[in-house]
User: Fold this.
Amino acid sequence: MSTLDQATLLARVERVRDRIAAAGGDPDRVVLLAVTKGFGPEVARAAAEAGLVDLGENYAQELVAKAPVLAEAGHAVRWHAIGRLQRNKVRALAPIVHLWQTVDRVELGAEIARRAPGARVLAQVNVSDEPQKGGCDPAEAPRLVGELGELGLDVQGLMTVGRTGDPRAAAEGFARLRRLADDLDLPVRSMGMSGDLDVAVAEGATMVRVGAALFGPRPGVPERPRAPR
Assistant:
């Protein structure tokens, strides 16, 4: 990222928004969540300076390190926790996180409710049937959503990670998440990343989580293939 100037970043933001539009989404309504996982605070700051106000982090230690840098620079961003969470990390994140996206069990929700009463959350659902991915079983989602609400949390929607491989293979899972969110009357559907956001938006994503398409691949991490246009 140190070699990526602001003009390049702005052009990449525009390309992502063009992809959202081409997939049938409204770039002004589909939230573009910039994922700065694996990059330093300067990348998060560049994202904020490019007008991206929603930033996502997978790791608690990175979020805790980057948030004060942006706050001191005067950037009023909204931080999203998007990685697998351990309950012992919630206390440090509670004053920072705007939206907890990976709540996949009641015990985690209870800890969030204890540390941040009324917090905004998404229930993570595993619609790909891949055991390495987080999320509750789709059949358990209604119960999880109900119990999170009983804890006083503001359950805004559902989140999922698409099936690994050909991005088109993720379409069925994304459609399943959309139907489930509709059945539960939840407006937010966080699904789709750099490689499969086109498919996700076509299936009804209201938020996409984008890292590589904005900042380039993290060192040592190959880019996932994009869905054919």
Notes: The mean pLDDT is 93. Residues 6-213 form a domain with the TIM Barrel fold (CATH 3.20.20.10). The chain has nine helices and eight strands. The CA atoms of residues 41 and 66 lie 5 Å apart.
